[in-house]
Prior knowledge:
By secondary structure, the protein is α+β, with helices and mostly antiparallel strands. Helix content is 21%, strand content 36%. The chain has helices spanning 38-53, 58-63, 138-148, and strands at 11-13, 16-22, 70-80, 89-100, 103-112, 115-127. It has a 6-stranded antiparallel sheet. A hairpin with a 2-residue loop joins strand 5 and strand 6.
Amino acid sequence: MTDEVFLLSGQLTKTGHRLVQRVYYEDTDFSGLVYHARYLHFLERGRTDYLRCLGCQQSDLLAADEEGLVFVVHRMEIDFKMPAKMDDALTILTTTEKAGGAKMVLSQEIRRGETLLIAAKVVIAVINRHGRPRRLPESVAEKFLQSSNEVAIDLR
């Protein structure tokens, strides 16, 4: 066990966001390895808590104006490098590659210690409450870009 303190919503770093999550029995298949679809849950938690740490509450974005603002996953590319196992402590890293117009591009990694398990690139569409594309407000885009210093995660 480590003495490091982990915040519930993770923390912003020089390159984006870092969240630590434990693998529980419910995350695994009969082999004791994390079921492939469960990685989507870990990645979603990383993105949601990244927003939260940037001061962007999704409910506030929806209610901010008449049009509303919603983030939806448009495309996701995932490379499965190695499996996670029951009781592993995973670190989910999220970095902004692009934020502007009607989309954002986020890079994410899931690591066990220094070992890369998952590399993902996620294209997020920005829509209004009626499902139509809308521009990401500059103030929100700036928060994402400033937090990540435009450092990308390589999918190799």
